[in-house]
Amino acid sequence: MSDIPVIDLSNAPGERAAWDQPSWKVYLWAICELLFVTNPWQISSGLRVRVLRAFGAQIGEGVIFRPRTRVKFPWKLRVGDRSWIGEGVWFHNQDHIYVGHDVVISQETFLTTGSHAHRRDMALITRPIHIEEGAWITSRCVVLGGTRMGRSALARPLTVISGNVPANAVIADATASVVGARFTSEVPA
After folding, report:
1. Where are the domains of the chain?
2. pTM of the entire predicted model
3. Least confidently predicted of 71-85, 119-133, 167-181
4. Is residue 9 classed as helix, strand or coil in its secondary structure?
């Protein structure tokens, strides 16, 4: 087995590849995130939103950010009007994340724009995430870089989401298989 290579991680590229701001700003954000955004005792969604905006997040009106939310780089986050961000959601946004209006991202969901996939040298690869208006990502989902979640699509709990999700689709499981439609054209009796 000694002929199988091991990457010397001290030489791996990209430790700060996604830092598109000065280090003082990144470190100041880390402190403010801990005090005002991630803090489970801080009960004001409005305060969380104001702090995120102060660091460059573009957040619409009427947005709810629950406690324990994490945002890697607020200057790479856009959230549309009236969206709800559940407790413990983690935006690991080394690239941009765009959230449309009236979107729900439920508890403990992890959104990550960065990966080392298919890179033998461990270099960072980033791709943005787009979540279109009306989408609902239920609890404990994982959303990978390059995802485009269609208008009013729904991901069931524990779904791993990648690629393009059709509008109005209900997806499930680690393969994000389409298992139905969220809304039908039938009018309830």
Report:
1. 21-178
2. 0.89
3. 119-133
4. helix
